[in-house]
Structure formats: structure tokens, C-alpha cells
Specification:
The protein is an alpha/beta fold. It has one domain (16-33, 45-163, 193-224): Vaccinia Virus protein VP39 (Rossmann fold, 3-Layer(aba) Sandwich). It is 29% helix and 24% strand. It has a seven-stranded mixed sheet with strand order 3-2-1-4-5-10-9, with helices on both faces. Strand 2, helix 4 and strand 3 form a beta-alpha-beta unit. The longest helix has 16 residues, at 16-31. Bound molecules: S-adenosylmethionine. S-adenosylmethionine binds next to helix 1 and helix 3.
Length: 225
């Protein structure tokens, strides 16, 4: 049995089971939401996202792990051409419903970020809000390499990495520091907090990268090719 907050350092490498159980957690979590929650979150950095996109002259944007679509909707309202992708079919249903209600043309796809079907160079920008936190480091590094490929040669990546994993809960810890939750409410969910060094590694393929602290220690990252 895992004691709340206990850190069991296992030698386990993030295997496919751990990855798939995280996906199952999210599908279950989203299945409890039957109608879209059509409010934007109160995040201090929200307006910085379109500002950075505009500065980079980005138009076509991929919203990675878009959930029920708030960021896609927010950006589409401002004229960006947005594709949102999430592994949860229910989250995508909610996102599509919201976009239809506002008559916004957004493409929403069900998809696993580890296996995205978009062509390389297809996007001017990739945005990722609170999504990399849910992957072991190995997969996160693979994802960031894929993100780099999806961007055109002037592409920009904008990510917010939350300061997670410090609260109560029952979990064990993978060798790379990722928490695997075992309590009833979050069984299977993965959470990892990135160190500045790990963020540098994620963005290693980019020509520039800045990161600054926002909202209770979250890190707002902008990287360009
Ligand atoms: C914390 S939520 C963030 C959602 C949204 N970006 C936001 O800011 O509200 C994490 C999202 O990642 C999605 N997700 C988890 N694993 C995924 C995967 N392998 N591929 C795509 N999406 C995934 C979940 O379904 C969930 O919607």
C-alpha cells in the first residue's frame, strides 16, 4: 500500500502501462463532464499567449492536449487558425460543442501526442498549457522533438509548466521523478514538476528559449526555432 505522499524510488522506467494508465485516467476524468464549461481560466499570463504569437507572426496554431478547448477557443476568437488535439474523445466532444456554440472554425482531433499525424512543418506555433506535466521525462523529450518538427522554420513553442506534485495524495515516484498516483480520485495520473535544467533539455533543439515564473511558481516558456 502506498502511504500518502510517500516517495518510493523505483527503478522502473516509464513503461507503456504507466503511459496508458495516465490516458485512461484522463478519459475517465473527462467522462464526468457532460456539457462544456465555457469560461476562460483566470491565468495571469493568458494575454501573453496571443501577444507572443502575434510577435512571431504566427497564424496556424496547434493546441497540444487542448482538453475541452478553452485555449483553442480563446485564440480562434482572436483570428488564429487553430487545431486542438487531445487524447480524450469526451474532451474533444466538449471542445467541438463549445466551438459550434460560438460559430468558431476550429479543427479538434482526438489523438495521442506521442503519435500525432500532422505533417512536419505544418504549424507556425504549438501551444501547450499544463500538458507536459503528465508525461514521464523520456516521453516528454520525444514529444518536444516532435513539436520541433511540426513547426515551420520560423516556428514558436509556448508552454506553461505548472509547479505540480507538491500537494497531498498517494503516489509512487519513477526514477525520473514523475509521480504515479494511486489514490482513488487520481489513479493512474502522472504528474511531474520540471526543473529549469529539464526545461532547457526539452527546448534544446530550439535556437532561443526564455522561461519566467508566473502564477504560484508555474513556468511560462517561449522557444523559437
Ligand atoms: C491538465 S489537462 C490540460 C488541458 C488544457 N491544455 C488546459 O489548459 O486546460 C491535461 C490534458 O492532457 C490530455 N492528455 C493526457 N495525455 C495525453 C496524450 N497522451 N495525448 C494527448 N492528450 C493527452 C488530457 O486529456 C487533458 O485534457
Amino acid at each position: 500500500m502506498t502511504i500518502p505522499g510517500e516517495e518510493i524510488q523505483t527503478q522502473a522506467t516509464p513503461d507503456d502501462n504507466v503511459y496508458q494508465e495516465n490516458i485512461a485516467f484522463w478519459e475517465k476524468a473527462w467522462s464526468g463532464c457532460k456539457t462544456p464549461y465555457t469560461q476562460l481560466p483566470t491565468l495571469s499570463y493568458i494575454a501573453r499567449i496571443p501577444d507572443e504569437l502575434n510577435k512571431a507572426k504566427a497564424k496556424r496554431v496547434l493546441d497540444l492536449g487542448c482538453g475541452s478547448g478553452w485555449l483553442s477557443v480563446y485564440l480562434a476568437r482572436q483570428g488564429f487558425d487553430v487545431v486542438g488535439v487531445d487524447v480524450s474523445a469526451q474532451a474533444i466532444y466538449l471542445a467541438k460543442t463549445w466551438a459550434e456554440q460560438e460559430d468558431l472554425k476550429i479543427t479538434f482531433d482526438v489523438g495521442d501526442v506521442a503519435d500525432l499525424k500532422y505533417a512536419d512543418g505544418n504549424f507556425d506555433a504549438v501551444v501547450a498549457n499544463s500538458i507536459f506535466e503528465h508525461f514521464p521525462l523520456k516521453q516528454a523529450l520525444e514529444m518536444s522533438a516532435k513539436v520541433h518538427n511540426l513547426l515551420n522554420d520560423k516556428g514558436i513553442f509556448i508552454g506553461c509548466f505548472d509547479k505540480v506534485g507538491g500537494g497531498p495524495g498517494e503516489y509512487y515516484t519513477l526514477a525520473d521523478g514523475t509521480h504515479v498516483y494511486t489514490d482513488k480520485g487520481r489513479k493512474g495520473m502522472l504528474l511531474r514538476r520540471y526543473s529549469p535544467e529539464e526545461l532547457e533539455k526539452l527546448c534544446a533543439g530550439f535556437a532561443t528559449m526564455t522561461s519566467d515564473e508566473v502564477d504560484a511558481g508555474s513556468l511560462f516558456v517561449v522557444a523559437t526555432k
